[in-house]
Amino acid sequence: MRPAFIAGVGNTPFGRLEGRDALDLMAAAASAALEDAGRPRAVIDGVLCGYATTTPHLMLSTLFCERAGIRPAYAHAMQLGGATGGAMIMLARELVRAGRCENVLVVAGENRATGQARDSSIQTLAQVGDADFEVPYGASVPAYYALLAARYMHETGLTEADLAGFAVLMRRHAATHPDAHLREPITIEDVLASKPIASPLKLLDCCPISDGAMALVVSATPAADAAIAIRGAGQGHRHQHLSAIEDTTNYGARDSSRRAFAEAGLAPADIDLLGIYDSFTITLAILLEETGFAPRGGCARRLRAGDFALDGPLPLNTHGGLLSFGHCGVAGGMAHAVEAFRQLAGRAGDRQLPGRRRAFVHADGGVMSSHVSLVLAREEP
Amino acid sequence: MTAVHSAALPFVEGLARREVRYQACTACGHAQTLARHACSRCGATALEWRRASGRGTVYSRTEVMRAPSPAWRALVPYTIVIVELEEGPRLMGHGAPGLAIGDPVEAGFFEFEGRTLLRFSPPGGDA
User: Which domains are assigned to chain A?
Assistant: First the structure.
């Protein structure tokens, strides 16, 4: 099969963007991505869009295409929680590799912060829990992840201060990105002293709820100045609900990452840039260990050694991640891939890191329920 | 009391009678978590509901300070636990304050918004 490339990306700022609905945000990101890719709308023959909880439409992709002036030969929306963006990029790649499409626009956006009341958002998200066994107990997504965290910390010795270090790192990276939601520097003490949400998680262990959108173009033809290929992709789905998790050494990310690396013909040691889903600090810690970028219980040691910093060997979420760049649903989980593309392609502006060639990107949905891993590589001409 | 999903009806009806029930596979005997349409170990679809002793061990726990709705906010802080029943399956429930991972517990029941729900406490304590 022929290779598939990311040809261009675009985004809106993340934060509170009053007066713009999901389609406004999606259209803005899509226009930016088309411009970045240097492609007119007419060449887009595939459209994949993520769901938006504020716009629960039956055919969001068609609605989006009508508004955006696109008439694709293939289009639909997808729903896989936080893994939706990764899954859309993976599918866009398959559509290109199979010859079904030449240029697939992948887009998602949502006014999750300003488009609904905070309680409403929290209750919608809590429905990833089981309606009869879990949701009736007054649990929320932070409470599910708190239960996950308490068990993982019990088994591995990871501490609350270890987790706090990841929140600090994400904030430091977000400070370098003008479009990030949260840019004020924080310290480990700030995280530990922040408002308790569900022990052991505090407010600053949790991502914010943001408005925003992300888009990218997956194509058979690379960008003119940089060939950034999606070299490997893999998924893993082992449970939906927290109660049903059987193996805390493989929530599904081990499966998905091994599949992606096998397809790419690469290993974690070949990677020099990371974009890892970080809805909570514990999410990031577990995923780093499970996907092979730190030994079990060892992610905080690598963090303290500076390995994940901008000047380290494995810069992590250089845009600030969900924890600080922000989380508006599907687009929040696409931001890691968008940033990885920019760094590999030399389009990261003031944030540009020297010499990055291979990125690993991972997204998870639900309660570590659905996993998508991607390996991106800069191909030399 | 009505279950949201029909597969869970025997469990929810059990709670209303103050019984803890779990699903077991009649082919391989596996006792499984939640209500499913097939055995998570062998794939057989002949499943039955059994009554659990109600005894188990705390697998994880959290104290919730930020509740998802006004009704729950009135109860903050509350403890949510995942308990591994001695028969094997895991169940979410409320827990007595101060429970730690590994503590032995037994099931009790409470009523909230028209449902009977689980509350786990140390054995012999007030359930």
Answer: 5-115+210-219 (3.40.47.10)
